[in-house]
Amino acid sequence: xxxxxxxxxxxxxxxxxxxxxxxxxxxxxxxxxxxxxxxxxxxxxxxxxxxxxxxxxxxxxxxxxxxxxxxxxxxxxxxxxxxxxxxxxxxxxxxxxxxxxxxxxxxxxxxxxxxxxxxxxxxxxxxxxxxxxxxxxxxxxxxxxxxxxxxxxxxxxxxxxxxxxxxxxxxxxxxxxxxxxxxxxxxxxxxxxxxxxxxxxxxxxxxxxxxxxxxxxxxxxxxxxxxxxxxxxxxxxxxxx
Length: 241
What we know:
By secondary structure, the chain is an alpha/beta fold. It has a single domain, classed as TIM Barrel, CATH 3.20.20.380. The chain contains eight helices and ten strands. It has helices at 10-19, 39-48, 68-83, 102-112, 129-139, 157-167, 184-191, 228-239, and strands spanning 2-7, 23-26, 53-56, 88-91, 117-119, 143-146, 172-176, 195-198, 201-205, 222-226. Strands 1-2-3-4-5-6-7-8 form an eight-stranded parallel barrel, surrounded by four helices. The protein starts with a strand and ends with a helix.
């Protein structure tokens, strides 16, 4: 059983490890669905965390239809990830029809080399998930992160279960979005997946001295932090510890 926790800071990675995570997905700007983290963050998490670190490669928020210049940026980010000795990469690209962009993915997977690749939740807006799974398998993708094309993995559990049956062990299904101590056991029992993905976040208010009502430096006056207790609660719900 693998517990992948999505974090956007060194403190978050350390909290996830203490809470029982077995793998880190490292990104920035979770509020935008996760973007490529900075070089410094990648380096420090690798240096201090002690868990496998899979890095998000996503140059911007919004859709997953990338231009040539955006793909060049992604390829450069992958090159740095090799230098930083990360343990895996997370990316995805779709075409204008909502299908897997096979040509773009070939470039990205080739650049990834021997690093395992997770196709992220771009999968959840694919028009034909059954076909997409086979395409990603042929491309050499190791796992697919999915909520079953629903808002939460629990709501999408029927599609996740069907995809798990289709996969037959050839590719890993990583169930994510809305995973909680209350639904994780039922999710695992109904889908038969062996890997889950969650953020375990809680809100932390900004320091009151630095709050000005007429000035905004983000979408809210709080920021999200990974909660060690929230990670531990999901792990305990599964392992019964």
